[in-house]
Write a structure and sequence with these properties.
13 helices, 23% helix, homotrimer, 4-stranded antiparallel beta sheet, alpha+beta, globular
């Protein structure tokens, strides 16, 4: 439970808010590289942390991320012409490069040096794992990119995309690190009876012992979550997930399996992007894994990346399916829609003064505390450690069956598994 | 005329407002029984007095009306699974019965007693006259259901449905007790010339003497309205209607004719439900009466119960019809749309500081006064008499032609007619 | 650059605002005569200066402009019946003539004199140049109509229409008096290379010397703008435009050519009407000119007069066209859409605290100053001179090539050209 004031502190990220300032110390995925498919292609609107921005790929292939509004008279640069290494406002012809310099100003006399005095807000950009990343904080504090494993991986070992969620970012993070919901929300009605024949470890044990016991550790990058369930008589099954500053999740996986990471970037206080990465550090993704990913992409509307099943159509809930097949009545191959139905329906910013958290919400409570802690420390002048130490992001999630007397972080194989080698 | 402050006092009914508190002392129709057609059917969203609620019919056929939001993490119970005598939130599986008890909590350890500490807001429900009724006030003050005649009537003697109005509830009540508008809004252009050949008493006299003279009496249940018009040389025609707390109307009828009652329940401050009942205490409804009702139902959009002719399409006004046939240009068989065009177009909450009331608005003035009086008395600690005395609702409206020297309430036949025997 | 407070002062025109009071000293075009095609035709909704109004043409052909809301109980008179020299509210039959008198009140007793005590807000109307004009200020200050040349012109010498813009009126005025944008926003990519073969003077010189030098003069009616460009070695090309109180523009034209005037009337603070007049004081319009006008009308949606290319569809921008043909990617025959893409995309009320004005924005700066000056003087009790001196509107815009040592206002031929003879 949070007071309304605490909730506002945690959920608001526009310029000038404490959490917005904290966020701006980190690099953010802001759109997909595929949205700017080639040099001089059409510019794209995007909104990140409540800032209206225009992304474009210039003639040299470099990506720019600049203010939506031309500094002259504030016409939108969405209508700009992307030409010869710059984006030209078509109102009076002012042209800007990816650095925000004004490189042409045909509306003013040649002898005027007004051009050299004008700049447009521009954020440095990088590309990695199919995403365009930007740094939106104070230039003098710009850190290196985080050492996320998937940012440096062969193309056949990862896939990525994004989905729009129609709620504040925090409730989407909460859903990601909440392993307990899987055995209801994402499960068939007969999941309990089938758990003995499950082909994965997670499938076998998660349904038999739904209310996992949570053990949460603070890390330099955020938190490490061990969700423990009874496995066999002498063993526990541990699902190990992570929350990394400021909004990255890594969810449990089978040993040597492919991992999944969510990067839940605020669009504004009432919407967020869910950037989604599946990667395997050991081998190329399998055909089945790629097909699942393609299916997910096909469930999104073009351009907007909003699920075709969304709140306007009640996520296409099928009450007969809900009666006979699964808990939600939303198809099992559309887990995104199942999640979104929950997190969107809480209201755009959930009223956390009304919630009732149980023992299985411990990871959520700790994630909130760490997030708020980061913003509060910055208010006191303490720069976030994770932002300036990119190596703390070189981690993974995992899963393991361990003897009952071994704590998950103390096991050497787990240790080997949850850090990038 | 009301000041803006008085108007706000009268029109606002969300939790914590004086009028909202007053309303909550009464039973409210909240949806139609047909919207929950069978045990374990899909739950329905509804909003009453600005509260977002979920209605469901459980396995035993009982109706529950509970908070839209699961008390755990606030996912909407609209997506809940209606199963085995309860509605289960599909996020983590918490399940609630119609009383609001949490009867299952699979996300928490079995030994936890958290389940017993959690309840969801739930309002007691009853069914009557095709409607689901709920009591949303303090449990210790829950009264019996009002003794409205149509709540205890054989099925062939009544019909009921509901229509959504896109305005505050008070202006819809005002339209209902305003008999004078009928002879313009609902009439053909040639109504005056045809009034002599009318087959009903109301038709004969209402058009010849449009500006009725109003006589209004306070009653325990609200007000009793006598609208007097000249009939023959030595007689008056009286139309007798009622306003019953907190928003029920009964409109005039022919002697022994079928009556009509409106129950105008606030959805929120800017929308309301018009629950509509036609009943005949003496005989089954006639085929023609049922056909009129079916026609009205057919004019509504499915699921939303909003008129297909609504403010988005200017109530399908036909200017040629308005020129040649009737005053409105909206078909005569769609009196609901004619009314809605008027009350919706005043703005969602009409600015009563700008109105100019005449002598024929006397019933409206008195209704407002009584409504506000009820709320003010409750603020002073006086519980509403009508809420706790269900028998005061055992009344009817009526109509009569009386000698000119008899006041309508003093006539024995009228007396016999306007109270349930 | 304006502070937020200055910006608000200039852009807000609802009743009671300083700029709203200033505006109300002038006559306003409020709709097109074609929208009320014949006596007793359907009434039309309109909104001017944030006032919701109903326009109707009565049986005698006179136009009335009255409050949207019936003074009785505030039903909308849009649903009124236009009959026998008045508009009748169909709720209770109150009927009003074009002067706002209540001429019938069937809902009240005949002996009541309530009818004579009730009036509806009604503004005096005139027709001219295909537009209905209204005066919405204090009756005792009502001036004569402005002596705009096109208000008194044979029918074959002018055309007029209107377009809805989805922004505050001031940014549309700014676009109209901003001659510099034409050579980018409205031009083909090859316009510089083709400027030598242009058939008009404007075409020849405006593209060769884009950054015009501005000379602005205050006039009794507003401002006179001379935009000077290099022509031949010993000559300058002057484009002469005007801003007339409170929102009228006249844009440059070729000598003896047809002129264009914009009347940019606030609908509310976030939308405006662009009334558009093309006229030629010397001869009938040519077939080509009329065709251009018909094309423009065909680009608008019926009833709403909103461009079919609008912000919902990004003005139908075609990125291939933008790459190969013109700067905007919006067809060259739809300059309105090109303009609207700019002025709408600034936001409904542009944040002028963020702009960076150059030397070519001098006319814009002066226009704002004069507009604000008018409102400020009125606050000090000084009635606007232009409103009460209709003859100051008997002016034109123009264009001329003059020797380099002649200032544009001093040339006799220019003098003769820019005033109505």
């Amino acid at each position: 439970m949070l007071t309304k004031e605490e909730n506002r502190y945690m959920t608001e990220t526009s310029p000038g808010t404490p959490m917005g300032d904290f966020m701006r110390r980190f690099w953010h995925p802001v759109l997909l590289s595929e949205e700017l498919p080639e040099p001089d292609c059409p510019p794209k609107r995007t909104k990140i942390l409540s800032e209206e921005l225009i992304a474009f790929r210039d003639t040299n292939g470099n990506v720019g991320l600049i203010d939506n509004y031309c500094p002259h008279r504030r016409a939108s640069l969405f209508f700009g012409r992307n030409e010869e290494a710059g984006l030209r406002c078509v109102y009076h012809g002012w042209k800007f490069n990816v650095n925000g310099d004004c490189v042409d100003m045909p509306s003013e006399p040649a002898e005027s040096n007004f051009k050299d005095k004008v700049r447009i807000k521009a954020y440095p950009c990088r590309e990695g794992a199919g995403m365009v990343w930007a740094y939106m904080g104070p230039p003098e504090l710009q850190p290196d990119m985080p050492k996320l494993e998937y940012l440096d991986m062969p193309e056949d070992q990862y896939v990525s995309t994004k989905v729009m969620y129609e709620s504040n970012y925090v409730q989407v993070i909460e859903g990601e690190i909440d392993t307990v919901h899987a055995s209801i929300l994402h499960s068939n009605l007969d999941s309990l009876s089938k758990s003995d024949t499950a082909t994965t470890i997670g499938g076998r044990y998660s349904y038999r012992d739904r209310p996992a016991r949570f053990f949460v550790e603070d890390t330099d990058s955020g938190i490490l979550i061990g969700a423990r369930r009874n496995a066999e008589e002498d063993s526990y099954y541990w699902r190990i997930s992570r929350f990394l500053y400021p909004y990255i999740t890594m969810i449990p996986r089978e040993p040597r399996g492919s991992a999944r990471s969510g990067l839940i970037v605020p669009i504004d206080d009432e919407n967020c992007w869910f950037f989604w990465v599946r990667w395997n550090p050991f081998r190329p993704l399998e055909e089945e894994e790629v097909r699942t990913y393609e299916l997910m992409k096909a469930s999104l509307a073009p351009v907007t990346y909003l699920g075709q099943a969304n709140k306007r159509n009640d996520y296409m809930i099928d009450r007969e399916m809900q009666r006979n097949v699964n808990y939600t009545g939303i198809p099992q191959n559309n887990a995104r829609a199942q999640d979104a139905a929950m997190t969107d329906s809480m209201g755009v910013i959930v009223d956390r003064s009304q919630e009732h958290l149980g023992t299985t919400d411990m990871a959520i409570i700790r994630m909130r505390r760490r997030l708020v802690q980061g913003a509060r420390e910055l208010e006191e002048g303490i720069e976030p450690y994770a932002a300036t130490h990119p190596e703390v992001f070189a981690v993974r999630s995992g899963g393991a069956v361990l003897p009952r007397d071994v704590y998950f972080t103390e096991d050497p194989s787990v240790q080997a598994d949850i850090f990038v080698q």
